[in-house]
Amino acid sequence: MDEPTFTSIYERFAPDVLRFAAYLTGSADLASDITAETFLRAWTSWDRIRAITTRGYLLTMAKNLIVDRYRRARPEVGLPFDLAQPREKPESKRYLDQTLAAIQTLPQEYRVPLVMYAVSELTYEEIAVAMELPVATVKVRIHRARLRLNEILETRGEPCHEHPSPERSLA
């Protein structure tokens, strides 16, 4: 098998990094900036990227860039762009908007692994490697994130049990 090129890595993983950054930051512009900076840094550290861990490596890099930005200044909460599919019902879009807003209120220690798991579809093991945590800690943080997310949504009058959720759901 041929060695992957930077272009092939970018084409394959840029949408994942953008989506991940959008969920964590709540800003389309900031997510775009984080994605660009992530791949710029990946370009300069190309020798450290291994094909097996490429997505985890890129998401970890994006997470670290987001953490750095949070340290400098808290980003705006709320998503100025629409992540919902156009064919979705208004109730689904409203639930998605409320869920995305609720995600922004989670502490970063819970928000990051939850988004890595539910949105980026990384395994517990990949998240553990990316976050340099034991697998058990990752599982606990994702569980606690889901509990808090459910509490937030129920407090806002949006019961989570009324919405069908896939296996890798956020709530």
Which SSEs are present, and which pair or pack?
Layout: H1 6-25, H2 28-44, H3 54-72, H4 90-105, H5 108-118, H6 124-131, H7 135-155
Helix pairs in contact: 1-2, 1-3, 2-3, 3-6, 5-7, 6-7
Tell me about this structure:
Helices cover 65% and strands 0% of the residues. It is mainly α and 171 residues long.
Please report the total strand number as a whole number. 0
Query: What's the number of helices?
Result: 7
Structural class: mainly alpha
Strand content: under 5%
Helix and strand element order: HHHHHHH
Brief summary:
The chain is mostly helical. The protein has helices at 6-25, 28-44, 54-72, 90-105, 108-118, 124-131, 135-155.
Descriptive keywords:
single chain; 171 residues; mainly alpha; 7 helices; 65% helix
